[in-house]
């Protein structure tokens, strides 16, 4: 009976972990460029002495859904929507290079170009981009950043840098705990993507299907309740068996 309890417990634990993944997706349903996390379970045979009849449930992180989110036109010159397999290079909190598709950019008071999460965008030279005082800003579809210096005319627009936008397939990236993507093979640096890499004045929305995630959450909740019921039933049966043994003794 204890075997049944442990097997049911692994299923309940996997359901709880899957619920955590789905709730994380729902919390980011309105986050620009967010890619839904994928979770699943797989059978895990319990090895040991005796007949191999026990198979536990194991939660598996299957990465992220790489499909594109809906495109929303904003007209904001600091909003960019990246093309397929294109990722903005940013500076992670630990100083390393990381990647994101969150294109809702902004400027700090000191002229640094950052994402909505406050991560500094990197130029193609690998350094954070900081802009001098200006009265107009334009980001080209190839990632070039141009400005009209403060007090100058429109004909003085000059390029001051270029965003580092890398070409990376989903299998080349893994998501960190901070929500940023990392290169799965650091010894093979990701290269700058050539040509047109983005659409300016538009945002890629989250690819989370909120309605589908809610249905999935309900299914996982019912599944968890069934597994808990199995645990309770197994415990009650064990208590009843113990009582009978005591009476028989």
UniProtKB/TrEMBL annotation:
Matching SUPFAM superfamilies: Flagellar hook protein flgE
Flagellar hook protein FlgE/F/G-like D1 domain residues: 87-146
The keyword Nucleotide-binding is annotated on this UniProt entry: no
Domain Flagellar basal-body/hook protein C-terminal: 200-244
Entry superkingdom: Bacteria
InterPro entries reported for this sequence: Flag_bb_rod_N (IPR001444), Flagellar_FlgE/F/G (IPR020013), Flg_bb/hook_C_dom (IPR010930), FlgE/F/G-like (IPR037925), FlgF (IPR012836), LlgE_F_G-like_D1 (IPR053967)
Domain Flagellar basal body rod protein N-terminal: 5-35
UniProt keyword list: Bacterial flagellum, Cell projection, Cilium, Flagellum
Family that this chain belongs to: Belongs to the flagella basal body rod proteins family.
Name of protein: Flagellar basal-body rod protein FlgF
Organism: Pseudoxanthomonas suwonensis (strain 11-1)
């Amino acid at each position: 009976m204890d075997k049944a309890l442990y097997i049911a417990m692994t299923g309940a634990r996997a359901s709880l972990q899957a619920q955590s993944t789905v709730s994380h997706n729902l919390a980011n349903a309105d986050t620009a460029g967010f890619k839904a996390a994928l979770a699943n379970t797989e059978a895990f045979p319990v090895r040991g002495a005796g007949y191999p009849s026990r198979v536990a449930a194991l939660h598996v992180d299957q990465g992220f859904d790489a499909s594109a989110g809906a495109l929303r036109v904003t007209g904001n010159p600091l909003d960019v929507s990246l093309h397929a397999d294109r990722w903005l290079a940013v500076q992670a909190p630990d100083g390393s290079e990381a990647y994101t598709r969150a294109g809702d950019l902004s400027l700090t008071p000191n002229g640094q170009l950052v994402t909505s999460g406050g991560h500094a965008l990197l130029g193609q030279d690998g350094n954070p981009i900081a802009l001098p005082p200006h009265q107009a800003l334009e980001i080209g579809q190839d990632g070039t950043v141009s400005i009209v210096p403060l007090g100058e005319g429109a004909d003085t627009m000059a390029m001051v840098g270029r965003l580092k936008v890398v070409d990376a397939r989903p299998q080349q990236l893994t998501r960190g705990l901070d929500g940023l993507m990392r290169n799965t093979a650091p010894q093979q640096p990701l290269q700058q993507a050539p040509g047109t890499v983005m659409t300016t004045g538009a945002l890629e929305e989250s690819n989370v299907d909120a309605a589908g995630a809610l249905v999935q959450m309900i299914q996982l909740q019912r599944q968890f309740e069934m597994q808990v019921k199995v645990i309770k039933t197994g415990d009650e049966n064990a208590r009843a068996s113990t009582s009978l043994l005591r009476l028989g003794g």
